[in-house]
Structure formats: structure tokens, C-alpha cells
Design a protein that fits this description.
Elements: H1 5-22, H2 29-36, E1 40-44, H3 47-57, E2 61-65, H4 80-88, E3 91-94, H5 104-113, E4 116-118, H6 146-163, H7 168-193, E5 202-207, H8 211-217, E6 220-225, H9 235-248, E7 252-256, H10 262-273, E8 279-284, H11 299-314
Parallel strand pairs: 1-2, 1-3, 3-4, 5-6, 7-8
Helix pairs in contact: 1-4, 1-5, 3-6, 6-7, 7-11, 9-10
The structure holds zinc ion.
Length: 315
């Protein structure tokens, strides 16, 4: 009998999950300890989701993000250690909308056998941007519109209260405070971006992560790669973008912390060949936050850092 590679991968995924669920004795020591202490253990895919959990639950839960600083969620594949943590967790929270493209299968499978929240997937699709590169799919980068991120925070809040009802009032109170900070952040971002002159309000980055940001804060966004870093860019894309930058005298383009700078360097070189010096405006945190313990290691700090980099380079 001949099986396709996808079929075999799927079977292996199921067998590994089943194996890990049966062999609870292999549980990671930290999770085992925290389970015993009665704390809800949560695994998130991105740091942005982990940040939402931390702001709502503080140290009442144990939470860990699988994808750390500089990690590209479009390309990330679960390690054996991740599978162990996912099967041990009381609750799994992921973005969805195909952000975690290489893990979608395993996350959906786990969703059938244990509590799982696809926090962006359940937002009203009228508020979600289409992925024009792949009709019928969506743009998953919703954290760039702070108001839309508030809906994800609400979804995380509801899930925490549902799975840990004894702390529900505490979670609600923290969530209310956090959402208030996010409201202020949204207004601050809007005011800051207005400092950029109209003719420079263009954000050029490696991949098309900033669509929500552009829509919410009135910037035109140009990405070389598509919505996912899985798509390739060609010479034609670079030539078109170079032409656009030179014709519009755009002052700066930006590198992303979780994407190779190769594409943007090619654009800068192309502009130079045409006699136009475009700056690299700095590094933006697109699909991953900064290091833990730094301001950019929080959602609010990351947004501030991005806005500061953008405004300073383009104003
Ligand atoms: Zn992305």
C-alpha cells in the first residue's frame, strides 16, 4: 500500500500526541510542579499572546510562549519539547488565521482533544483583512491594530475565566485595566504617526505584516514578500518597489526582527544603483517581540518601539 507524505506526517502527528498523552511520567518538571500547585498551565504560540495572559492572570497561572524573540511564526515547526508542553498544558492559546502555518495541523488536532483557543480566529471576519495573495484566506497580523488586539485580549480573558473560574473576578479586573492601557496606546500611536508628513507616510518592509497597522493609523504599506514569509519575492517585485521609492523619494525602509534582511538590502542596493540613497530606518518587531526583560519584550513596549523607529526615520 502506498501512502502520501502528508498522510504519513498526519499519522506520525497523531501517534506522537497519543504517545505523549499516555506517558504523563515524561512531563516537563516545571509544568508537573505547577500542576501540583493547582495553577493553570498555559502554552501560547506567540509572545504577544503570552503577554495578554500575563497582563490578565499575572502569576496566578504558568504561561510559556513557544516562539521567542526573532522567531518567524509562519515557518516555525514544533519541536518534540513543544509537543510535550502542548500535551501537558491545561490550555493552549494560538493566533490562528494560518499565522502558525507549519503547526496548523497539530494545533487543530490538539483542539479536538483538549482546551484550545484560536484567539484571532473567532474575531468577526468583517474586521479581518483578506489575504489578497491567497484568495479565501486572511491576514493574521492583527496585533498591529491595537483596537483589534483588544478583541484578542477579551477572548483570552474569557478563556481564562472559563478554565479557572475561582479567579474570574481577578482576571476581569486586570483585563479591564489592561484594556484601558491599550486604549491609550491606540490614541498615542495615532497621534505619533500623524507627525510624519503626508508624502512620507509609506511603510516599506520585507513581508506584508503591517496591513492592519497601515489601515488603522493611515500609512500606505508596501511589503516585498506576501502576507506569509513562506511566499517568495522575485526580481520584478524588487524593481517595482525600487521604482516606487525613487519616484516618491521615500526616505527610509525597514528591516523586521523575525525576517532575513536580504530582501530589504536588495531594495536599498537597487535604489543606490538609480542614484537614490534610501536609509534603513531601523529594525521593526513584526511577528515576534523583543527579549524578555526589555521594554520591547512586552506588547505595549513593542508597539512604542516600532512607532518611535518609524516616526524618527520618516518625519
Ligand atoms: Zn508575518
Amino acid at each position: 500500500m502506498i501512502f502520501s507524505t502528508d498522510y504519513l506526517k498526519g499519522r506520525i502527528g497523531i501517534i506522537m500526541i497519543t504517545f505523549l498523552m499516555i506517558h504523563s511520567s515524561c512531563r516537563s518538571p516545571q509544568f508537573q510542579q505547577d500542576k501540583t500547585a493547582g495553577k493553570l498551565t498555559i502554552v501560547t504560540t506567540t509572545m504577544m499572546l503570552e503577554d495578554a495572559v500575563i497582563n490578565i492572570a499575572k502569576d496566578s497561572v504558568v504561561v510559556e510562549a513557544m516562539m521567542g524573540p526573532g522567531v518567524d511564526p509562519h515557518l516555525y515547526k514544533a519541536t518534540q519539547g513543544d509537543l510535550q508542553k502542548l500535551t501537558d498544558a491545561d490550555l493552549i492559546i494560538y493566533n490562528g488565521l494560518f499565522l502558525e502555518g507549519k503547526m496548523e495541523d497539530i494545533l487543530e488536532r490538539l483542539g479536538k482533544i483538549k482546551p484550545t483557543l484560536a484567539a484571532a480566529e473567532i474575531i468577526d471576519k468583517n474586521k479581518i483583512r483578506d489575504n489578497l495573495f491567497y484568495p479565501g484566506t486572511y491576514d493574521p497580523h492583527i496585533w498591529f491594530d491595537v483596537h483589534l488586539w483588544c478583541e484578542v485580549v477579551q477572548n483570552v480573558n474569557k478563556a481564562l475565566q472559563q478554565h479557572d473560574p475561582k479567579n474570574a473576578a481577578y482576571y476581569q479586573s486586570n483585563a479591564t485595566k489592561f484594556l484601558k492601557s491599550l486604549d491609550s496606546l491606540h490614541l498615542k500611536v495615532r497621534d505619533e504617526i500623524l507627525k510624519i508628513p503626508d508624502d512620507q507616510r509609506v511603510l516599506v518592509t520585507a513581508h506584508d505584516a503591517f496591513g492592519y497597522f497601515g489601515e488603522a493609523y493611515k500609512l500606505e504599506v508596501k511589503g516585498l514578500q506576501g502576507i506569509s514569509t513562506q511566499s517568495e519575492f522575485g526580481l520584478r517585485d524588487i524593481t517595482d518597489l525600487v521604482k516606487y521609492i525613487v519616484n516618491n523619494k521615500i526616505k527610509a525602509v525597514f528591516i523586521e526582527s523575525s525576517v532575513s534582511p536580504r530582501a530589504i538590502n536588495a531594495v536599498v542596493a537597487g535604489c543606490k544603483e538609480r542614484g537614490f540613497a534610501v536609509d534603513i530606518g531601523g529594525i521593526l518587531f513584526s511577528d515576534a517581540m523583543g527579549e524578555k526583560g526589555t521594554p520591547e519584550g512586552t506588547y505595549i513596549g513593542m508597539v512604542h518601539a516600532n512607532v518611535k523607529t518609524i516616526v524618527e526615520a520618516l518625519k
